[in-house]
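Try this one yourself first.
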C-alpha cells in the first residue's frame, strides 16, 4: 500500500515559479503529493518538467500578480485543472533585478514597482484565491518575506520595506480569515543560493553570502532545498493550528 504523503489531495498555486525558490517549492510540493499550478509572468515549462519528475500533477499558467484579473485567471486555471484550490504560495517578487543603493538614491519608479509586485501582488492573489478556499472549508496561504525585513537590510530600503509589509499583511489577514479556517503564514529566509541572489548582489555575491553565513548559528549558505520543507509544512495539516506567524528560515541568524 502506498504511504500517505503530507500534501495528498491538496491543490497549490505557486507564484514566481519560473525559476529559483518558486521552482523548488513546486518540485517539493508535487513530491509531497500536491497538485500544483506553477504561475509566473515568465515561462514555467522547465519548472513543469522538473516538478513532473516527482510523478505528480503540475500545470503552468502565465500570471502577473500586479493585475487582479490575471490573478483571477490563474485561480480559474487551477480550478479547471484540478477542480479546486486550497493552497497558495505568494513567492513572486521583484528581487533579482533591483538596484541596491543608499535610500535617497533609489528611484521613485523602482520604489513603486517593488511595492506593487511584492505587496499589492500578494493582496491581489489573496483576493482572487480566498473564494475557492472558503468553498473548500479552509486553506493555507504562505507569503514569502525575508530576513532582510527583520534584520533591516541596508541599501535596499524598497525591498526591505516591502518584505516587512508582507509580515504585517500576513498577521492582519490571518485574523480576518481564521473564521473561514484559512491559515495565513509567512516565511523569512536568509540569503539563498539562487540565480536571483547572484543577480541581486552582483560582484559582491560571494562576499555577501560568506558574511551572511557568518551571522548564522548554522554556518553555511542556504540552498533552495533548505527552505522548501518549511513551505510544505505550512501547507500541510501538520501545521493546522499555526496561523499569523512568520517562520525564520535563516539558520538561526535571528534567535527569539
Ligand atoms: N533568494 C534569496 O536569497 C531570498 C531570500 C529571502 C527571500 N527571498 C524571496 O523569495 C522569493 C524568490 O526568490 P528568488 O531568489 O527565487 O527570486 P527571483 O527574482 O529569481 O524570482 C522571482 C520570480 O518572480 C517572478 N515575478 C516577478 N514579478 C512578477 C509578477 N509581477 N508576476 C508574476 N511573477 C513575477 C519572476 O519572473 C521570477 O520568476 C522572492 O519573494 C524573494 O524576495 C529570496
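Now uncover the answer:
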Amino acid at each position: 500500500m502506498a504511504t500517505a504523503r503530507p500534501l495528498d489531495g491538496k491543490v497549490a498555486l505557486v507564484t514566481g515559479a519560473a525559476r529559483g525558490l518558486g521552482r523548488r517549492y513546486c518540485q517539493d510540493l508535487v513530491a509531497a503529493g500536491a497538485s500544483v499550478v506553477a504561475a509566473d509572468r515568465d515561462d514555467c515549462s522547465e519548472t513543469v518538467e522538473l516538478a513532473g519528475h516527482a510523478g505528480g500533477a503540475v500545470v503552468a499558467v502565465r500570471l502577473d500578480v500586479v493585475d487582479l484579473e490575471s490573478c483571477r485567471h490563474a485561480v480559474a486555471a487551477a480550478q479547471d485543472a484540478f477542480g479546486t484550490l486550497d493552497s497558495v504560495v505568494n513567492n513572486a517578487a521583484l528581487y533579482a533585478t533591483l538596484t541596491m543603493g543608499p535610500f535617497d538614491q533609489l528611484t521613485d519608479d523602482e520604489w513603486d514597482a517593488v511595492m506593487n509586485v511584492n505587496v499589492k501582488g500578494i493582496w491581489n492573489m489573496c483576493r482572487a484565491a480566498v473564494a475557492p478556499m472558503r468553498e473548500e472549508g479552509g486553506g493555507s496561504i504562505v507569503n514569502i518575506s525575508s530576513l532582510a525585513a527583520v534584520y533591516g537590510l541596508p541599501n535596499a530600503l524598497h525591498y526591505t520595506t516591502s518584505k516587512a509589509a508582507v509580515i504585517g499583511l500576513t498577521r492582519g489577514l490571518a485574523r480576518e480569515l481564521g473564521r473561514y479556517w484559512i491559515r495565513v503564514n509567512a516565511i523569512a529566509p536568509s540569503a539563498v543560493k539562487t540565480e536571483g541572489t547572484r543577480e541581486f548582489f552582483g560582484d559582491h555575491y560571494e562576499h555577501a553570502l560568506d558574511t551572511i553565513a557568518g551571522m548564522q548559528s548554522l554556518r553555511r549558505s542556504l540552498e533552495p532545498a533548505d527552505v522548501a520543507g518549511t513551505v510544505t509544512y505550512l501547507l500541510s495539516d501538520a501545521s493546522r493550528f499555526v496561523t499569523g506567524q512568520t517562520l525564520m528560515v535563516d539558520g538561526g541568524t535571528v534567535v527569539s
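Discussion: The CA atoms of residues 72 and 128 lie 5 Å apart. The pocket of nicotinamide-adenine-dinucleotide is lined by residues 15-16, 18-22, 40-42, 63-66, 91-96, 117, 121, 144, 146, 189, 191-192, 194-197 (CB under 6 Å).
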